[in-house]
Each structure stands twice: as C-alpha cells, then as structure tokens.
Amino acid sequence: MLNKIVSRRTLLAGAALWLVGTSSTMAQSDKVLDVYIFNYSDQTLLDVSVNQVRMGSPGPYPYSGRRNKVGARFNDGPQTVTWRVAGTGGQESGPIVRSSNTPTMGEIPSDARNLSIHIYPDFTVEFNFSRRVPVLSKRGEAIDADYRRRKAAQSGAS
C-alpha cells in the first residue's frame, strides 16, 4: 500500500516538474505582442502573414500603421513573411509574395508590447518592438518625407 502511494506521488511530482519546465522554456522563447503593419507601398496588401499566421491587410501608404492583430505569439529567430498585393478596387489579388529578405526577431525585449512590421516597396521587411504605439521606422521616415513633399507639390500646383 505504501509503495502505491509513493509511486503515485513520485509520478505526480515528476509530471508537475515536467510541466513547470516546459512552461518556463516556452515563456523564454515565446512572446505575445500586438501587431501593427506599416505598408510603405501605394497598393493595399492582403493577408500579411508571419510564419503562416495571418496578421492583417494594411492599406496603401499613408493609410497603414494601424493595429492589425491583438495577441499574436512570436518566438526568436528568422521569420517568413508573405502577402498578396491587391488589384484594382482592393478586392482582386495577385499571387503570394514573399519578402526579399528573411527578417529575424532577434531577442524580443522583455518590456515589448507591440511589434511593428514595416514592409517596403522593394519587398524587404523590418521588425521593430515598442512598449507604446509604434512609429515609422527610420527608413519609413524618409519615405514619409518624400510623400509629404510630393503632396505639397501637388497642392501648390493646383
């Protein structure tokens, strides 16, 4: 009788330690973040996905950068980013496009709450982390300045 109790306790203790070890390993490699997608092209992107998990469909620049997904789970390391480019009217779509680079999460900061995915017209992708609402990337700021110059020139010409 005592052997059965000891073996049950041993089994339960072993299972509890295994669960604690598994959850702590997962906690170190996985992070839950809200996702913002910045699309710097002049076309709507459909079904932006990171490692086959759909993140959202950002509009053309400057109508992007809004939160697209709440509570997405990410891990460190290289990521596969894909999307489709919308046709006329924003509904028709072309083939799936894969980023020309393989962006990596690197080590996700412990205080990060948001992931901003920056997709550039040359199909490269960049990830940035933030505690608060994300902003344009450095490369995005240059694209924004060019966009504002063109808009000002169009307004001045009218």
Helical element count? 2
First-residue to last-residue Cα separation: 93 Å
Order of helix and strand elements from N to C terminus: HEEEEEEEEH
Detail the poorly predicted runs.
22-27
Structural class: alpha+beta
Shape category: elongated
Overall mean pLDDT: 85
Biggest sheet: strands side by side, in what order?
A: 4-1-7-8
Helix content: 25-40%
Major sheet description: 4 strands, mixed
Rounded to the nearest angstrom, the radius of gyration is 22 Å
Number of strands: 8
% residues in beta strands = 25-35%
Please write out the topology:
Layout: H1 2-29, E1 30-39, E2 45-50, E3 53-56, E4 67-75, E5 81-86, E6 93-98, E7 114-119, E8 125-130, H2 138-157
Parallel strand pairs: 1-7
Antiparallel strand pairs: 1-4, 2-3, 2-5, 5-6, 7-8
Characterization of this structure:
With 158 residues, the protein is an alpha+beta fold. It has two helices and eight strands. The strands form two sheets. The chain has a four-stranded mixed sheet. The N and C termini lie far apart (93 Å).
Short description:
The chain has 158 residues and is α+β, with helices and mostly antiparallel strands.
Main attributes of the structure:
four-stranded mixed β-sheet; alpha+beta; 2 helices; 8 strands; single chain; 158 residues; four-stranded antiparallel β-sheet
